[in-house]
Structure formats: C-alpha cells, structure tokens
Write a structure and sequence with these properties.
six-stranded antiparallel beta sheet; 470 residues; globular; alpha+beta; eight-stranded antiparallel barrel
Length: 470
C-alpha cells in the first residue's frame, strides 16, 4: 500500500504451490494479466515522445495488412482506437485465438482474423472490452520501434524503471526462481494448474502476458503517483496525462453507484477511471485462469495499492479492492470484508434461474451413429479448422490450433454439447445447421453458462463443413 507517495505497508501470505510450503514473498512473480495493458500503452507513449509514432496515425501506416470487417473502419482506425475498447468488436471477440493456452495462433493470425469478426456495434459508439487490438497495438509498437514487442518492453519500460523481476517473452521458471503457480478451485480445494519450466513467448503478451512481483509493481505504481525527475524524462507529463485521461465512457453499474457513489466511469489508454466517494481513481484489474490482480491509484492523494492472487479469486478481488479503496476514500465507512462478501453472496442468490449454469447431470455421450450426418471437418474464417469425428463409438471434437479445446460430444435432452477434456474450459452447445441454398452444413456454438467468461467467445464462430473425417 502507498500513502502520500511512500510504501507504508506490504504483506504476503500463502504458497507458490498449494501444500508445497514454498511461501509467497515480495519477489514472487505473478501473472499480472490485463494490468499488462498499461505497460503496453506506456511503451507506445515512449514512442510518441521519441517521435516514432502519433496517436492519430492510421494503424495501416504501420501494419498495411491490417483489416477490420468494415473497410471504412479499417481506413479510419487510429493507433489510439486500438486502446479504448470502442472498435466495434463484440466483447471478448476473437479471444479464442488467445486463450485457452497453449495454442498455435500467431499475431499474424490475429491480424488476419480480425477481418472476419463481425462487429457487435458501430465504431467508437460504445465500450466493449476486447483483447485482440492490444495485440495489434503491440505489433504497431514493434513496427514503429524497430524491434519485437518483447525487446521493446524490456528495453523501454522494464530497464529504465528498474523493474528487474518483470518477465515477458520466453524465460525459464527454474532460472528466474520464486514463481507463483496459478490455481483453480475443485471441490473446495485449491488445485495447481501446472506449468512447464520453460515459459514460451505468447501471442497475448501485449494484452495480458507480463509477469511481475510485488516489489516491482509498487515501483510501477509510484512511477505514476510520485515520478522522479528521471521518470519524467522517461515519459513526459503530456503523455502521462494522455494515458490516464478519459477517452471512452463506461456504463456505471448499479453496484458501483451504491457502493462507491460513482457518477462517471471511463477508459483511458490501458487504464480505467472513476470517481469514488468524490475522489478520482485510476485502476485496472487482471484476470487469467488461476490468477487475479488489481492495481489502483488515487492520483490527487499520491496514494494507491496493488495486490496479486494465485488462485480463482474473482469475489475475493472485488471485496479486497473495495475495502482497500475505502481506506482512502471513506475511512469512516463501517462496511468491511464480511459486509461486502455477504453482499456478493446475496446478489448471487438473487440471479434469475435463466442466468444460472445449465444442469448437465443428465448428459450422456452421443453415439457416433446418431451424429454420423454431421461428422467431418469444419472451418471458421478466423478460428480455423475443427474435426468432429468418431472415436471409440462416440463423437470427438478437436480444434486444430487450440489443442485443449478437445472433448466428447454429449447429448442433453434434444441438444448436443461438447464437454472438454480440460474441465477448466467452459463447455459449449453445438447447434448443427442443414445445408441449404448452396450453403454447406454449418455449426454454431454457444456457452452453456450464458454468464461465463466472455473470452470463451463461441458465439462469434460460424463453421461450415469443408470435408469428411480422415
């Protein structure tokens, strides 16, 4: 925690791997997930300061192959438009090219695939969170900066700010040491999600692929709250203001109005911002499978906080973030951890039945015979190929470029779904469409849980059968 520019409190609890006895320390690396976005925009700001790009430059000036679904949007997409979640892409559109990991989608695949993702709303008209355009922004930085995104991040951000433990690109867990392992909840227990020692470079780095420790994240936060003379040379006050200025309004939820008395919420370049109890806050969260984080700044108070959790902790992050924020904005508020936790529990109980996850207890494996009509090779223009083919009397689904999206086709009532072999992924409905009007057999997908993670954007897929099983 930072108060008036000084780190006044730090605490670490828990283990790098549940049951290992290896304690979390201030130097333990965590995935910061979407908190990486602010580092990406800082890199772009550096390039603007250096005269290597401008925020209003067309994206195609740096990436001539860049295309959106609408040619007019392609022509008018500025570098700044990549950063504000107002491009027209549906929420989480195309995220299946990033997650689950590992997969073999490249950044070139993403730039190619964007042209085939249908818009969910008109350009610059509203806020819908996306990740793909931050990957594109990383490639713009690489083109303007004359080096890979990873090289630029290390050279232009980590090194000048002394973030000596932060990692991006390929690295080795054993060599670096003291690395937190992500965890999922299973039957009330924390279960580790194993990682290989060799961490590969990942396509999603600019959107959410950086790892840092608590010490470096506090240094990163202080750079925004109380920048030194050297840090103001690293990134000018003009660019600092641009990054943390409101650029796209975000609807204010009823919960935020009730809890924080918020009137305005917006997105900057890699940062969210809102008034909280009459005070201006700038923050972001990070969410990846088994890792949650939050960094929050109160610039007028030169104060803020950061925390990282290596577990499935969505509600815990909400509660902890709220209580820590109230320490600054409403120190006399009587509501504590228990009050906010109870409020979230009550809200969950009040969800309508239709919003609850589907009961799959009666699902049964569908036979290969009953699905023979639909078997074969299917192709989506941005996700690529999947195979729906017999295996041991049942039907098996496998995605060519996303190996964990493989599973058995099940029947539930009169509908079919795919139950993934990796239980961490959201199961999906399969809706087959008969050939008609010259269009071949088709396949659409949708999340079983309509409130599930938007990055499982099955609804944006539109498969057509292109061949038989091999």
């Amino acid at each position: 925690m930072i108060e008036n520019g000084q780190v006044v409190y730090t605490r670490t609890v828990g283990e790098t791997v549940a049951g290992s006895g290896q304690k979390i320390t201030p130097r333990t690396l965590f995935k910061i997930a979407s908190n990486s976005k602010a580092m990406t925009t800082a890199l772009l700001g550096r390039l603007v300061d250096q005269g290597k790009l401008r925020w209003d430059d067309p994206v195609t000036e740096y990436l001539p192959q860049f295309r959106m679904n609408d040619p007019w949007v392609t022509a008018n997409m500025r570098v700044a438009d990549l950063l504000t979640h107002s491009s027209g892409l549906p929420e989480g559109g195309g995220d299946l090219m990033l997650w689950p990991e590992p997969n073999t989608f490249t950044r070139a695949d993403i730039i190619h695939g964007l042209a085939f993702i249908k818009p969910g709303y008109s350009f610059r008209s509203q806020y819908q969170y996306d990740n793909l355009l931050y990957v594109v922004a990383g490639e713009v930085a690489a083109a303007a900066g004359g080096a890979s995104y990873e090289t630029l991040m290390r050279r232009e951000v980590f090194a000048p700010l002394g973030l000596d433990r932060c990692q991006v690109g390929a690295w080795n867990r054993d060599t670096v040491g003291d690395v937190a392992t992500p965890h999922r909840r299973d039957a009330g227990r924390n279960v580790a999600i194993p990682e290989d020692a060799a961490i590969p470079a990942i396509t999603s780095a600019a959107a959410g692929g950086i790892r840092c420790d608590l010490t470096d994240m506090l240094s990163w936060a202080r750079n925004w709250l109380v920048p030194t003379h050297a840090q103001l040379q690293w990134l000018s006050p003009v660019q600092r203001d641009v990054l943390q200025a409101p650029h796209m309004l975000i609807p204010v939820s009823a919960q935020r109005r009730a809890w924080d008395h918020t009137h305005v919420m917006a997105y900057g370049y890699g940062w969210r911002m809102a008034d909280v109890d009459g005070q201006w806050s700038v923050w972001h969260t990070g969410t990846l499978n088994g890792m949650y984080s939050m960094l929050a700044l109160l610039p007028d108070r030169r104060s803020g906080f950061v925390f990282m959790i290596n577990g499935d902790a969505g509600d815990a992050r909400t509660v902890l973030g709220e209580v820590l924020m109230k320490h600054f904005t409403a120190p006399g508020d009587h509501r504590g951890v228990d009050w906010y936790a109870d409020a979230l529990e009550q809200r969950a109980k009040q969800k309508p039945a239709a919003a609850s996850a589907i009961d799959t207890s009666r699902q049964q494996p569908a036979s290969a015979a009953e699905l023979a009509r639909w078997s074969g090779q299917y192709r989506d223009p941005w996700f690529g190929d999947v195979m729906l083919c017999p295996r041991d009397g049942t039907m098996h689904f496998a995605a060519a470029k996303s190996p964990t999206l493989a599973g058995t086709v099940m029947r539930l009532g009169d509908r079919y779904l795919v139950h993934w072999d990796d239980s961490a992924d959201l199961d999906a409905w399969l809706d087959f469409q008969a050939a008609s009007g010259g269009r071949p057999i088709g396949l659409r997908m949708a999340k079983l849980d309509p409130l599930g993670d938007f990055s499982s954007d099955y609804e944006d897929l539109d498969f057509q059968r292109v061949g038989g099983c091999r």
